[in-house]
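Dear all,

This email documents one entry for the complex benchmark we are building for the journal club exercise. For each entry we list the sequence lines for every component of the assembly. Then comes the predicted three-dimensional structure of the complex as a token string, followed by one or two observations. Please use this as the template for your own entries, and keep the labels exactly as they appear.
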Amino acid sequence: MQTLGSNASSFNQAEGWKRTVSSELTAADSDFAVDVVAGLSAREKTLPPKYFYDAAGSELFEAIGRTPEYYPTRVETALLQQFASEIATGIPEGAILVEFGSGASDKTRVILDAAPQIAAYVPIDISEDALAKAAAALSRDYPKLPVVPVAGDFTGAIRLPAAAHGRVKVGFFPGSTIGNFTEAEALRFLRSVRHLLGDNSVLLVGADLVKDEATLVAAYNDVEGITARFNKNLLARINRELGGDFDLDAFDHLAVWNAELTRIEMHLVSRADQIVNAAKHTFAFKAGERLHTEDSHKFTTESFADLAAQAGWSMSREWISAAPQFAIFSLAPQRSDSLPSTARRTRTMETKSIDTRSALTLREGGYAAVQYIPQKDVDMTLLKRTDHHTYCPYKGDCAYYSIPLGGDRSVNAVWTYEAPYAAVAAIKDHVAFYPDRVDAIEEQKESKKR
Ligand code: SAH
Ligand code: AVI
């Protein structure tokens, strides 16, 4: 077990943060403001990629898809077209098509054309402008198809519209948007989608595959500079919405391949020492300092199947393009009598027991020690996110979950810091439990040798 903050210095560090960054953000400030302040205050500056997608960012993403270098959009669309009728045979009569991160819904048209048995379409997107535009265009072109858009963040609690209740659901998650998650986020998302779509569902996921570095890097470095504009739109959006004064010309777009973590990383690199104001705060950048804006993980069939299995899905079909290779995977909920070992661990959690070897212990002066458990060891589908939020000046914004199986006692029993401040960055992607709202938290000593 790792101990975090057990000495005074890490919390002095937090006190130091409190003194230098005034806590002027209030509950009325947007998630965007809170995430920007947290991300730009971190030792390694970072921002969540979901904020790329305001109206301008969504249009820039569509323009990226038209560049010769960005093969994923072109190749995935062609793959869908080539196998449309095979894919359509896996879609049950009267199914509801639920798309995560639907954007312009262009690829959806290939599915809708091949599968007239689809009874309604539910596009979900954080970009309200892109969603409204796409829903209007689809309603015009498919007048008999009910289109019920849901605007929101698919990493939070999603509620499907009444049209989807009692119907078989087919999830569609194209574009390799799954690659923009960390592993823990991808597992959390796939588990929550498994819960949302239900036992008889199908989930179609588009995922970009590992390939040669030159092809990958070029896709995120188009010569026309559209990807650079997309990357810098994050700064432009901070200027527009959070009173920022970023000079876009004072940052360079950088896309690099991280072979060890099999991902393209996008950064914005400060060209000089500079001070920037945004969201009522001041941030210092050193010359050459990087702001990490996006990861785009690339998969192999094996790595993807393993990820899906850990989240309760099994792979039923896969379609893979010629080079540059891109895959569409058809997933089905795992049957309980055929669980692979990774999922068996998950199943034991349905008895409400969590077994982890890598909990963190956070000690804050005067408070009882709190154990933070990696979300990858927790079956998050057993938890229900609530609207409850709190704010801690040392750790950041805190979100809560209830445990429906635990009844009233377990309301808001679990909490997480999704973007913790730098001093406690290690608790990201972990959850903590109130000891009096669960049956027991037991610490077992590791035996020396097995
Ligand atoms: N599916 C489309 C668009 C992919 S771009 C395609 O394959 O071409 C990623 C899309 O996901 C954008 O439309 C963006 O607005 C949306 N998105 C990104 N993060 C999101 C989040 N957290 N919640 C909901 N939508 C999100
Ligand atoms: C949406 N997502 C999968 C794209 C990607 O490839 O990671 C976003 C993007 N970033 C730069 N170019 C495109």
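Observations: Residues 1-23, 337-351 have pLDDT under 50 and may be disordered. The longest strand covers residues 384-392.
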